[in-house]
Design brief:
This protein is α+β, with helices and mostly antiparallel strands. The chain contains 13 helices and twelve strands. The two termini are about 15 Å apart. It has two domains: about 160 residues, Aminopeptidase; about 180 residues, Aminopeptidase (3-Layer(aba) Sandwich), CATH 3.40.630. A twelve-stranded mixed β-sheet has the order 1-2-3-4-5-12-6-11-10-9-8-7, with helices on both faces. The N terminus is likely disordered.
């Protein structure tokens, strides 16, 4: 059988994931810098926050995190920080480095392990990052091998485009190569440029997001992103985890109150979960805009902004200006709340043409990042 990935040409038959991942029997020791190492615990959240923000400030990143955001790392039920994380403390007991490996329970077409970590700027150049990253890569290989998912595998690390050169060399030496590029876009909400007025057709209704839309929006998301590179289905627990920045007052959905159930059920592209929801007569979300409020970033950037966390339209409903209607509603909500700009992040090779849509609405690039991977 020829195995394919959602972002690649057909591959030759794959060896078992336990072989492809080449997991080491034991993990390499981390001894550089004289730090004391142990797994992360929930009580470490304040120290981890201080370290992450110190790194962000030193690297001039336009982001800062909150205690709630860091605490959420420990709340996800699928994370195994007892085995998949390391924290390094100096002799005074101060946290000076961290690293962890994250894998998603919903991965089906490709199984992924993401690597996150950093060393305090004052301790860089002592080999700590090199040894810690080697530990992460080794642990990531173990995680992939243990998944038992006989699909393509991927080790991945997200990198800001202006990351220090030493970090880039570290990734390159470990075999990680650039795989995908992302652009953070912003749109000035005070420049007087009009926002489009969109009248949706076919009885579609744009409404503020509510609790009843939560699961229907997840199903819409899984359908909308099924043809996006690297995207995998989100389980209920993934969808509901990490909402400390969620801004419901800026979030909207488009609902089809009278979907053509027979046609959708007959369409082979309709996934099983959506089909079951249609049969049950549940609200049918066909487009969604989920917003976030990153208050800690306002001072760093010098202005308040609203952020489009995720935006999507079911594939069967594309071409009906649903995304434009959602973005326009969100930008109006941002502006009404005193935000100066609207922001979002986009894959520069997005297959739905989103980049062109955002440009037509006045969004321009403000920052960039990319994904480096080892493909297995």
């Amino acid at each position: 059988m020829i195995t394919t990935d959602d972002d690649a040409a057909p591959r030759l038959p794959l060896a078992p994931i336990a072989e492809r991942a080449a997991p080491p029997a034991t993990l390499p020791a981390v001894t550089a810098g004289g730090l004391a190492w142990r797994p992360a615990e929930r009580s470490d959240a304040p120290a981890l926050l201080a370290l992450k923000n110190a790194v962000a400030e030193a690297d001039r990143e336009p982001y800062r995190e909150t205690l709630a955001e860091v605490t959420e790392l420990f709340d996800a039920p699928w994370r195994r920080l007892a085995t998949d994380s390391l924290l390094g403390f100096d002799a005074a007991g101060d946290l000076r480095a961290y690293g962890y490996v994250d894998s998603m329970p919903g991965d089906t077409r490709i199984v992924r392990a993401f690597l996150f970590g950093a060393v305090h700027p004052q301790l860089r150049g002592r080999g700590i990052g090199r040894e810690l990253f080697a530990w992460q890569v080794a642990r990531a290989r173990q995680v992939l091998a243990a998944s038992g998912k006989e699909v393509p595998g991927r080790l991945a690390v997200f990198v800001e485009d202006d990351k220090p050169a030493a970090a880039l060399r570290l990734y390159e030496r470990a075999g990680f190569t650039p795989r995908r590029y992302y652009a953070e876009l912003e749109r000035d909400l005070r420049d007087g440029a009009p926002l489009p007025d969109v009248t949706l057709d076919g009885g579609l209704r744009l409404v503020p997001i509510a609790d009843e839309h939560d699961e229907p929006a997840r199903l819409a998301h899984n359908d909308a992103f099924r043809d996006h590179w690297g995207s995998q289905p989100m389980t209920r627990e993934q969808w509901r985890t990490g909402r400390s920045t969620f801004a419901p007052e800026w979030s909207f959905v488009v609902v089809d109150p009278d979907p053509d159930v027979a046609a959708l059920l007959a369409d082979p592209a309709t996934d099983a979960d959506s089909a079951a929801a249609l049969r049950r007569g549940e609200p049918f979300v066909v487009g969604y805009h989920v917003a976030a409020r990153y208050t800690e970033d306002f001072a760093v950037r010098g202005y308040p902004f609203g952020y489009t966390e995720i935006l999507g339209v079911r594939r069967a409903y594309r071409g009906r200006r649903i995304a434009v209607a959602l973005l326009a509603a969100a930008m109006r909500a941002f502006a009404a709340d005193g935000m100066h700009r609207a922001g979002l992040d986009v894959d520069t090779q997005n297959p739905s043409g989103a980049h062109g849509l955002y440009a037509s609405l006045g969004y321009v690039k403000s920052h960039g990042s990319h994904l480096r991977t080892i493909e297995l």
